Amino acid sequence: MSRMRFAQMAGAIKRNTMLRRIASSLFSRVLGAVVNFTLVIYLGRYLGAAQTGLYMIGFGAATLLSTLARLGLEQIIIREGAPLIRDAHWHALRRLYRRALFTSLCAGVVIAVVMLALARVMALHIFHKVELGDVLPWFALSILPLTFALIHVPFLQIANRPESSIAILSLWIPLFSLPALLLIHPHSGVAGAQVFLAACVVNALIAFVQWRRFMAHKSTMNANAATLPEPALLAPAMPLLVGNICQMALLWIAVFAVGIAASPNAVGAYSVAQRVALTLSGFLVPPIDALVGPRLAMMRGDKSREEIQYLIQSISSMLFLSATGVFVVILLYGSEILKLFGGDFREGYGALVCLSFGQLAIVASGSIRPLLVVYGLEKMIRNTMMGAALCCVVSCAVLIPLIGPLGAAIATSLALAGEKVIEGFIARRRLGISVFPSTGFYAQHVRLWLNRDAGQRRGG
C-alpha cells in the first residue's frame, strides 16, 4: 500500500468521529489482547498446565457468576440511557445509574456468599480436585468488584467513552496483574487468584472515577426530568440475563466438562487454546459494539431500515475480512503459538483450530446482538442462546468421552456458529434486515475501491 493511501486513510479517520473512535477503541482492545496474551503465557510457564487448569476453572466460575450478577442489564442501560444523554436528561441518567448499580451489587453479594459457602463442595464433588478448594474462594471474592466495574461499561459506552469501556472490560485487569505476578513469581493457582482479586479492585476504582468524571459537571436542572417515567429494568433484562448466561456458558461449558472428565493438564491445555482462539472475536467485536450499540439506539426511528442494514453489513464485512487473516495465521502457526506457553500445551492445537472456527462465525455476524436488542427482540436472543447452550452440553456429553478435549472444541464451535446463523435468520425475518453481506456486496465495494484507486493513479 502506497504512502498516499496511508495518508488518505489517516485523513479519513481524523475527519470522521466514528472512525476515530473505532480506531482508538481497537487500539485499546489490541493492547488489552497483547497484555492478556502475555499474562497467560506467563501463567502457563510458571504454573504449568495443571495449576493453570485450576486457575482457569476458578476464573471461568468468577466470570460466569459476575455475568449472572449483572442480571442482563447492560443492553437495557444502553437502550434506555442513550436517549437520556442525547436529550441531556442528566437527573434521569443518575437515577438509572443508581438503580442499575444497586441492583447488580445486591445480586453480586448474594452470589459471592453462595460461592464462598460451596467452594469446597464444588472442588470435591463436582470437579473432583481437592486443591481447587483453595483457589475458588479467592475467585468468589472477586465477583463483587468485577460486577461493580463491568456494570459501568455500558454507561461509559453511551457517554461516548468507548476507549474507557474497553479498557475496563479487557485491559486494566491484565495490565495490573502482569507486573504483580512478575514481582511475586507464583507457583500455584492460589497466588494467581489473589492477584486477580487485587486487579479487580483496582479496575473497579478506575471505572468509578471515570464515570464520576464524566458526570461531574452535568447539570441536574432539566424541566422535563420530573415527567420522565422510570424505565423498567429487570423485566426486559431477564431474557438478556438468560441469554448472557448462556453466552458465557458456551465459552465455559467445555472447560468445566473437560475439568470434570480429564486431568488438570488437559484443562490447562484446552483453556490456553481457548484463550488464543478468543483473540479472533475478543479484540474485534467489543470495540465495535461499544460504538454501534448506542448509535443503533439513536438511529432507530430516525433512519431507514436500508441505512441500518448498510451500517450492519459494512461492519460485518470489515470484521470478517480482518478475522479471516487471523484465522489463517492460527491454522498455519497455531502449534508454534502454543509452544510459547510451554511444551505441555501443544496438544491443544486441534482444539485451537476448532475453537477459532467458532470465533470466526461470531465475528462474521458483526453487531447482530445490539441490533436485536434495540428492536426489542430480547426473548429471541434468549431462546437462541438457550438452544445453543443445550446443544453444547449434549454434544460435550457425547463427544468428550469419544475424542476428549477435541470433542469439547467441536461442540463449542458448532453451537456458536449455529447460534449466529439463527440470529441472522431472525433479523432477516422479523426486521427485514440482512446481517450477513452477500457476495454482491463484497463485489460492489471491491469495484468501488478499484475504480477509486485507478482514478487516483490517473490524477496523480
From TrEMBL:
This is O-antigen/teichoic acid export membrane protein. Keywords: Cell membrane, Membrane, Transmembrane, Transmembrane helix. Its main location: membrane. It is found in: Cell membrane. The lineage of its organism: Bacteria, Pseudomonadati, Pseudomonadota, Betaproteobacteria, Burkholderiales. The chain crosses the membrane at residues 21-42, 54-73, 100-123, 135-153, 165-184, 190-211, 249-270, 276-298, 310-334, 349-375, 387-411. It comes from Caballeronia udeis. It is a multi-pass membrane protein.
